[in-house]
Every structure is written in structure tokens, then in C-alpha cells.
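Check this.
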Amino acid sequence: MLDSVVKFYNLIPESRSPQRADKSVGGTIPTRAYRFCEALRTASAFGWYVFPPIDFSLVFDGTDTIWRFNDDEPWYNLSAVQYPGFLDIFNSQCPEDLTDCAPPLIATGAEPGIVQIWSGLIAKTQKDWSLLIRSPANLPKSAKYESYEGIIETDVWFGPLFTNIRITKTDVPVDFRRERPLMQIQPLHRSTYSENVLNSFDSVESVSEFTDEDWSDYRKTITQPGKADKREKGFYAKHTRRRKAAEQ
């Protein structure tokens, strides 16, 4: 049984280890937002950053994808490519029946422009915990590709931790660098995305349907802290931080 919610297995020693996601998103969000917007800070810090194991570039021409690791190397057609030297290392350590079963670092998808990128990691979670794989929260995104999101039930699936992207600009290099997070991994308890939970919702169709309790809650949020011109800056952030501190 795991002591932590998630355990990361780094199969490529040269790659960066996952790190806790950052409330300031590496200093990229505005100072005012960092000071006063607790919702943004909380979302930004939810999970762990995962980085590419190596620098590489891709180019999609609308039909085919080509790749290279270094800027001074030639381009190659992409089907599936291993991290340099990793297959030999894997084969020297794995059981005989798993020879040549090392996951590729980069591979093309079934549709043109779709590429699967392996993080170099495998993850294992406690029972009933899964991992949401998504692009880094609140980090400015590239205009050259989109990241797909996926939920992996890593308490039962022990395999490569990868992401899928769709290249959206043709005939220009799309660069991936080790210092920039490739994805953000977020823990989810399986109950949070069960059909029972997701089908359990109600909606209020008009302000005329507000109850006295609704109006009371609205009053506590909107007017009791002070009207807009008199409200303390960052009231929600300070209130939330004090509550979190008290709960610890």
C-alpha cells in the first residue's frame, strides 16, 4: 500500500522529476492576481508539473509529422521514436518476456497531426484515486498545438504516463523544452467523476426562484464585506487563507 496519494516512477534518469505546481505559475501571472485572486492561485497549484525528458521539435505539414531532438540535427519522419539509448537500458533491466517493450518517447496518432508524448514516467495511486492529465493551469498556451485532457485510473493501470496533442499550425516548428511543463497532473478521487455524482445536480432558472437562504448567502458574499468602492481588496483571498490555516 502506498504511503502517499501518488508515486511517480522515473524510467529515464536524465529527465526532470515532477514538481508541485506553483501558485504563481512560475511568476507568469500578474502580481495583483497573485495577491488577491485566491481562486486563480488555488487552481494553479492544484497538482504537479511534469516536464519533457528531452528537448525536441515537431513540424506538421498537414499530412505528415517530422521530428528532431537538437536544432543542428536533420529532420526525420515520425512514426515512433525512443529516448536516445533508453531501449538498451530497458532491455538490460527488464524480465526477458518484456524485451523491446519499452514505451516510445514520441509517436504519431491515428489521425494526422495527433502526437503522443511520453513523460518518461509511470505513476501509481492509492486505491480509488486517478490522475487527470491536462495542460498546465493558467500558463500561457502555445498557438501551435492543443493538449487533450484525460483521466487515467492509475490505481489499476501501471503504464506510461503520456499526453496527446494536436498540432494546429502547419509548416512551423513546435518546440518542447525541458524547462517548460508539458502537462499538469491532478489527483481525483474516483467518486468525484462517477455517474452518480455527475448526474446529481439541480438548476435555478430565474432570480425570482431565489429562496431567503439564497439571498442571505448572496448578501454575505456581495454586500456584507462592503460595497465595491469600500470593499477590502482581496477579501475572498484573505478569508479563504484564514479558513485554510485554521483547518490545518
About this structure: The mean pLDDT is 92. The radius of gyration is 23 Å. Residues 210-247 form one domain. The helical segments are 31-36, 38-44, 86-93, 195-198, 212-222, 235-247.
